[in-house]
Amino acid sequence: MPTKETGEKRCKRCTLKQEATKKTLLVDEISEILSRQLDYPTNTVDISSVSISSGSSYTLHDAVQGEECVPRIKSAKLHGWRHSVSTPSKQPISRPTSQSTRQASAAIFTLEDLAAVRAIEKLATRYGRVSHMSVLDPRYKFFVNRARTAALSFKVHNKVALVMGDPLCEPGWFANVLAEFKEYRRRLGWSIAFIGASEVFTEYAKEHGWTTIQFGTERVLNPMTNDVLNERAGKRIIVQSKQLLNPSKANISLGLYVPAQGEDLDVQRELVRVYDSWREKRNRAAGAKAFITVYDPFSMPALMMYIYTRGPDGVANGFAAIRRLGANQGYHIDPCIAAPGAPRGITDLLIVAAMALLHSMRVSYLSLGFEPSETLADITRLSPPIEKITRAIYKRTFKQMLFQGKQMFHEKFKPDGSQGSPLFVLFPAGAPSLRQLVALYRMSNISIRKLVFARFGKNSDMLMPVKQKIEEQRLGMDRPK
């Protein structure tokens, strides 16, 4: 006759079963793997004394590529294992002390000027948002105001300064840095537009009568509550990730690299090889690609962490770059890539690993980046005919660029709708000129000629306002704003 199980034994058995189940959660497994590789620093390095030589506003031009442009920063530390982004300070970056005074008159600096790079890092750490991924793109320049309290990240197309995101500063410094940049632009004959502006900066724009266009949303994961990470959803992602990490199956290993805790040139070279091979394959692939950013992944090490994967042969085959966002008290994951020939599911594993790492750091904000809307939302200060053309061109752009694939990829990781926020394009001078629109599309790697003429035809009445703008440009009437 079987012995009847006592209540105490049954309770103990249930407890052991629950503990065993808890230990199999992927978040715990990955957190343990990555936490063993992350130092627990006891002190931090204050870079507030780092300055830039010049007594006037200037630009920093990231023109140098290759190993020689990687800053040698070995003593800087993260602000602790538990997530801590320093509270924005109104203290300006201190006055010049670097040895690059010989370049001050040219107002152009490269990544070799460590003082300039660290000063930009300081502003990006305090005020960075998802749209500031351009800080890692060597094709962009930086403009910094005289007080050293604000910066703009921008690229010039056809005499249009395209600024990525909000000014890197407190809202109280918006007017100052914009006025100084306007003075700088006038000398060069540039107009201006902002891409990926936040609601905060857009409110400033509306108060000053700018044209604003809401084109997309920032999608955000919450590592503290995410259903995929907690295995309440995304079963395929979880099963596949566990198989990849299983030594008897795919035998993929995870690594963590934090440049601010000590530079490892071997790891950097490996990750650069992964990135270059991924870009080469991407560029050969058919299909339209928008919003292409070309990274120098290690140009600003104080902002970054990297999670990477290795195959059974010990060779790196994927990585995710995680950039600190001071304005959101969180991080942005981009790029998140797998090398050609890597096992299926590497990028999914990297996103899950990033959430697991931030979960252990008590971080509740992981941005996936831009997600363009199917149709333009709120538009202010555009005439009805121009607004109609703008909406029609955008609608066709959305269909041609296959943005729905990006939406589907984001959705499978269950973004937190309460943390997502709208993104805007801003035109300070009012309705955008044709030159500004063309620059915007070229920066986004989109052919406006194919979009417009394929949709409306060369003689469409809807194109008359655009043709008038072209004629104005030909006659020299389209002046920079």
From TrEMBL:
Residues 129-416 form the Phosphatidylglycerol lysyltransferase C-terminal domain. Its main location: membrane. Pfam families: LPG_synthase_C (PF09924). Signal peptide: none annotated. One of its GO terms (molecular function) is aminoacyltransferase activity. Keywords: Cell membrane, Membrane, Transmembrane, Transmembrane helix. It is found in: Cell membrane. PANTHER family: PHOSPHATIDYLGLYCEROL LYSYLTRANSFERASE (PTHR34697). This is Phosphatidylglycerol lysyltransferase C-terminal domain-containing protein.
